[in-house]
Specification:
Blueprint (H helix, E strand, L loop, with lengths): L4 E2 L3 H6 L3 H12 L4 H8 L3 H13 L3 E9 L2 E8 L4 E2 L13 E6 L3 H11 L6 E6 L2 H9 L5 E4 L2 E2 L4 E2 L1 H7 L5 E15 L20 E4 L4 H13 L12 E2 L2 H9 L5 E5 H7 L2 E15 H4 L5 H7 L2 H8 L4 E2 L6 E2 L2
Parallel strand pairs: 1-4, 5-6, 5-7, 11-12, 11-13
Antiparallel strand pairs: 2-3, 7-14, 8-9, 10-13, 10-14, 10-15, 10-16
Helix pairs in contact: 2-4, 3-4
């Protein structure tokens, strides 16, 4: 049994969104147990436990450790594969003289501008943007590690942004989804595009070195989905395993010559003086739980979103559209 296991896989995040599976995992982290013992602990029939236990075992979070024959029946003892699992960890400063709103989730420079605008006004709460990645941001929000999550997760089944993930992770909670921006993503490349990179197919060239985003980020999720759609094997891409956490870090790698190309925001390419090949436009939303939405401290955020000055400033960054900023989506 491992002492510690980081969880990065998107599917495992989804798996652990179920409260029953979390409770089963916690039981098995304490001691080995049988199906019947788990059912008794949860006050449910063992048959209702079996499906969840099988899913946890398939994901490698639970393992069979022993068997025991009692009155002709085989009792199987299961245990968690680690004593602790890492999903998110967040430490924020204590500022007793001023309230702070923490926004976790996907890196976005428009969100950083929002944070800067609010922090400069002594009448409003400070606003802190912590780039964890879209999926980790939603998990953090669910765990109470912030008040807002920013995300741009595309679901290829429903063709929707963010809503399927919010429904999955917050099945019994009241949350608000607020459209923040529409933004352009594509290939960030050096000025003049010296290696003639025009699309994803060019990434398989042995002469091209790529810089990737971390698993759990919305950009990485889109990229992996697109590779699967085009039947491009990731091992054919030099640099696929080299990961950074923000769009600016992608641009910095290209600017420094440590990578020939990366996937990121047009606004960041403009900011860094790099070339850009557009690939797709996406919707970036803010997710907030109802009790935080009703908190008066959140009102300045909404007022800023709806201000003409804020929208004009964001569009000046390039690669952003603000036509729907502040619109709330029912889930």
């Amino acid at each position: 049994m491992k002492n510690f296991q980081p969880i990065k896989d998107v599917n495992i995040h989804k798996l652990l969104a179920d409260d029953t599976r979390q409770r089963i995992l916690r039981i098995l982290m304490s001691q080995p147990s049988t199906l019947s013992q788990i059912g008794k602990e949860l006050n449910v029939y063992p048959a209702k436990v079996r499906h969840h236990l099988k899913r946890l075992e398939e994901a490698g979070l639970v393992e069979l450790t022993a068997t025991n024959v009692v009155r002709g029946f085989v009792e199987k003892y299961y245990q968690a594969s680690a004593k602790a699992y890492y999903v998110n960890y967040l430490i924020v400063p204590t500022q007793p003289e001023k309230e702070t709103i923490v926004a976790t989730g996907s890196h976005d420079i428009a969100l950083e501008y929002l944070a800067s605008s609010l922090c400069q006004d002594h009448r409003t709460p400070d606003f802190m943007a912590v780039p964890l990645g879209s999926l980790d941001g939603l998990i953090a929000l669910r765990q109470g590690l912030g008040q807002v999550a920013g995300c741009h997760l595309f679901d290829p089944v429903t063709k929707e942004y963010n809503l399927p993930y919010v429904r999955l992770l917050f099945p019994n909670k009241n949350v608000r989804v607020i459209i923040f921006v529409h933004r352009q993503q594509g290939l960030i490349i050096p000025p003049g595009n010296p290696k003639g990179i025009s699309g994803l197919d060019d990434l398989t060239s042995p002469e091209v070195h790529f810089i990737n985003r971390q698993p759990g980020s919305g950009t990485r999720l889109w990229f992996d989905q697109e590779l699967a759609k085009r039947e491009i094997q990731s091992q054919r891409i030099s640099g696929y395993d080299r990961e950074v956490r923000t769009h600016r870090q992608v641009a910095d790698e290209v600017l420094a010559g440590r990578a020939d190309v990366g996937l990121g925001l047009q606004a960041v390419a403009i900011e860094k003086g790099l070339d850009f090949t557009p690939l797709f436009s996406e919707r970036y939303d803010l997710v907030i739980q109802e009790e935080q939405y009703q908190n008066p401290n959140f009102l300045p955020v909404l007022e800023t979103l709806h201000s003409k000055k804020f929208r004009q400033a964001i569009e000046c960054l390039g690669g952003y559209e603000t036509r729907s900023v502040g619109v709330e989506i029912s889930i």
